[in-house]
Amino acid sequence: MKKISASIPIYTIGYGSRTIEQFIEVLHQHEIAYLVDVRSAPYSRYKPEFSKEALEVKLQQHRIRYVFMGDTLGGHPDDETCYDAKGQVDYEKVKDTEVYQRGIERLQTAFAQQQCIALMCSEGKPEHCHRSKLIGASLTAQDLPVIHIDENDEHQTQDDVILRLTKGQIFLFGEHTFHSRKVEFPLPQTPHQTPLEVLKDVFGYEQFRPLQETIISHILNRHDALIVLPTGSGKSLCYQLPALIFNGVTVVVSPLISLMQDQVMQLQQRDVCAAFLNSTLSHAGSRCRSCES
User: Residue 82 CB: number of other CB atoms within 10 A?
Assistant: First the structure.
């Protein structure tokens, strides 16, 4: 790991693919006393141990305090003026809001007191998350040291992360400014890819589970389908994969709010742009929904 400054920096971390045990072990390695949750929606269906209530209980068992600040530092502000015409969150506008500034002030106070804190979100890679593009940028602009713990448990400075984000490009005029990911749904592959190629390239699996390939082929041939499968059989892949092959936008209707949040997070981690709308959002947030990172 890279050396850090003598003063205790403000850490950030995304749980990503870590188990709860691995995640807490990393926190202990860094002697984290306060975990600051900056997710706008602090819950997960596939990893319920990282949902707010369960996570708080687990952290208490390890003598780590849980602090929710997604309402002030989350990547999905309720203020509709923070969104541009394309539906992207404009981070420069977020920085000007009173709510966000209050959140940053709390972090400043924690640093002044040399509290060992870590800002947490779901995305493992810091360059894909608003904790670097928004919060990290604000803190380093005020000369506060920020260390991002990346998906490999390595230390990355804010400059390191920006280089990863911009792929080493140097900007000659002013500082880097970023938006959330676009609302448009670009296809990550050509329509000529086979389902198996998409399965490998996007989802990282070498073969389908039983019945998945048959169902996907049926859908790709534009036939209606009513599918009943047990939990854990991979039903979501049966509509997500065809959506990446078909042109246009795919709308998924689900009665499970936590399922929406978790599937959107999983797709974003695979660089597929996705968004959800549900009753947990304010009217302004519903009108201006976009990918958090």
Answer: 24
- CA gap 124, 242 in Å, rounded: 26
> What tokens appear for 283 in the block?
């009217």
What's the pTM value of the predicted model, to 2 decimals?
0.61
Residue 186 lies in a domain: no
User: Where do the DSSP E strands lie in the chain?
Assistant: 10-14, 34-37, 65-68, 117-121, 146-149, 155-157
User: 255-288 as b/e, with b when 16 or more CB fall inside 10 Å?
Assistant: eeebbbbbbbbbbbbeebbbbbebeebeeebeeb
Residue with tokens 């106070």: 109
For residue 124, what are the CA distances in angstroms to 14, 121, 221?
4, 8, 36
For residue range 231-266, list pLDDT tens digits in order.
888 889 999 998 888 777 888 888 888 878 888 888
Kind of pairing between the strands at 146-149 and 155-157: antiparallel
Between CA 246 and CA 241 the distance in angstroms is: 9
Tell me the residue range of the domain where 55 lies: 10-166
Identify the H or E element spanning 2. none
Judge whether 121 lies within some domain.
yes
Contact 240, 266 (CB under 8 A): no
Give the pLDDT band of residue 185 (cuts 50, 70, 90): very low
